[in-house]
Amino acid sequence: MNLLVAVTSVLIFILLLAFAVRLRGWIREMRRDIYVIRDEVRAAKELNVSLGTAISNMTAESVNAACINSIGFRFPVFLGGWSIDTFLGRYLIQYILEHRPKCIVELGSGSSTILIARTLQLLEEKETTHIAIDHEAKYLGLTRNAAQLNAVADGIEFHHCPLARYESLDKLWYSGLTEKLSGHKIDLLIIDGPPGALQPMSRYPALPLLLPYMSEQCTVVLDDAIRDEEQEIARRWIHENPEFNLTLSLEGHGLATLTRQ
Fold first, then answer.
1. pLDDT for 24-43, tens place per residue?
2. What is the pTM of this model?
3. How many domains does the chain have?
């Protein structure tokens, strides 16, 4: 009898041990499945947020484009890609309507040049100086042609400023630019050049070199602020010039806007 009890006890123990081992395996599998489900839920949420953001941006782009087109062009003005996006286009129109700047300077010519010139034309702001700078003669010529096709070229000063090294900043920058700006006080400075891939902190020299030519009340717009480097440039400008206020918008290509009131 004692032997039977002992054998039975051993068998029960073995069965319980086997069950415990199997149960432990089930728990591990369940935990792994829970982690997989959790990660999938997180990914789904992130995808939903990304899709929501993308849809929101697309909607805003469409509204912006419709508003921009409403000012009327004889020849298409292309936005997006290498050109400015509709967020910057909308900003420029709204800024000009509200502030009526008397001197506008663009570093990097293109679609923004036509957009600004057309807005000034509609507002009959004939006393506003509009200067477009480009280091590439080819692209400056294309912008001039587009301006002529849209009958706005007469209101624009086109300047070709090839890049040259400024030893004080150890950067390539627009040669002869400060001489061309002599006597001007810039109300609105739009920075869409030189290309960011050209050199580290490629657009940083804009404010240090052009600050003496800025109006007391002025605005600086740095395009492509979705990029980390442009954000660092804007932060450095603010640190060095605390009289400016910085507004950062990450819609589209992104805008860093510095204002001095």
1. 777 777 677 666 666 665 65
2. 0.77
3. 2
Residue 219 sits in the same domain as residue 119: yes
Residues 54 and 182 reside in one and the same domain: no
C-beta atoms surrounding 203 within 10 Å: 25
Range of the domain at 58: 1-70
Question: Identity (one letter) of the amino acid at 87?
Answer: F
Residues 205-215 pLDDT 10s: 999 999 999 99
